[in-house]
């Protein structure tokens, strides 16, 4: 919960500046092309740094990386308040992207290595739910403050990042704790390390089918994260355009984001618990399929009220995909590689968001149906890819039931 609180503080501060940032940049002389570059620099910086940052957290520990990310984000936010101009804006927005990406990756890696396996689903749900709750609150705060108070918002974002460091200092270990100790975690801890391929050489063959399991499992998780990124990118570029086409007011547009984000945030912890107990393959694939169906349906809805109702229900169906996928990741990657793994999948999601946002705007100009339908089809193909990658996952990784397990001494039992 402390990491979730830190994440929410950071994301509230970061998202509060979003509604008015393009207008603020225009008022300070930036042309539309520069505005686009500034906004894209956040994603570009995240794509470039998330994997290296994840590996760094494996080497030096999670706490220094989270705290470093908060400091970098704060520097970027203060920079916006102090300096104006196109180049400084690009640099400081990129610093915000580096900082937020570092915190996201290292926080997820912390949960993957420090939280008991039985509680990881709820913990991941709380982490991602806090991000959505922040997106429901932050833009509303920024819209109320308005363009004339952007300097205050930038400083408030920096202050939020500093405040977020307090719960991190309280709960995140100062250095990497290393693999679980079988004497302290029982058979389950040793079993997870063996499943991850992180056991000493020569022991991996004791688990049936383990030789190719990590790569297939990781590929499936990568696809799930990329699919969610594609959906996010399409909505970032086209949702407001679609709402405006249906004669929505500015309040309607803001309300639609809140109506999606709030149910998502409320259901995130229960969804994480469901992923801990249910079959993660069915949950992740079903959730992605649900999101694809809603994505394809939105441009066919003729009225604003229908769009508002549908986006609320989409949150209910889509909330479980990421917790289910990340639980597969934590059970198939060694504890000393969690940071690199989390960095890889977050990089895939961020890159997919950027690509989809860039392409969807152009496709919307052809026809409003085209970007939504295209992304929906690609997500369905992603579902097929995940099903293929995860078809041979054992039940103790996929969830839902338990199968043979490895015990110390190399004996297998039930």
State the major sheet. 2 strands, antiparallel
How large a portion of the residues is in β-strands, by DSSP E?
Answer: under 5%
Query: CATH fold name of the largest domain, please?
Result: Growth Hormone, Chain: A
Q: Which CATH class of the largest domain is shown?
A: Mainly Alpha
**SS element count, helices:** 16
CATH architecture of the largest domain: Up-down Bundle
User: How many separate domains make up the residues?
Assistant: 2
Gyration radius (Cα, Å) is 21 Å
Specify the overall morphology: globular
- Overall number of strands: 2
Q: What is the CA–CA distance across the termini? A: 34 Å
Name the structural class.
Answer: mainly alpha
- Strand order in space, largest sheet: 1-2
Helix content: over 70%
Can you tell me the CATH superfamily of the largest domain? Answer: MFS general substrate transporter like domains
Q: Average pLDDT, to the nearest integer?
A: 80
List keywords for this structure.
single chain, 414 residues, mainly alpha, Growth Hormone, Chain: A, two-stranded antiparallel ribbon, 78% helix, globular, disordered C terminus
SSE blueprint:
Elements: H1 2-16, H2 21-27, H3 32-60, H4 62-82, H5 86-114, H6 120-145, H7 150-171, H8 182-195, H9 213-245, H10 250-277, H11 280-297, H12 304-318, H13 321-332, H14 338-366, H15 369-389, H16 395-398, E1 405-406, E2 412-413
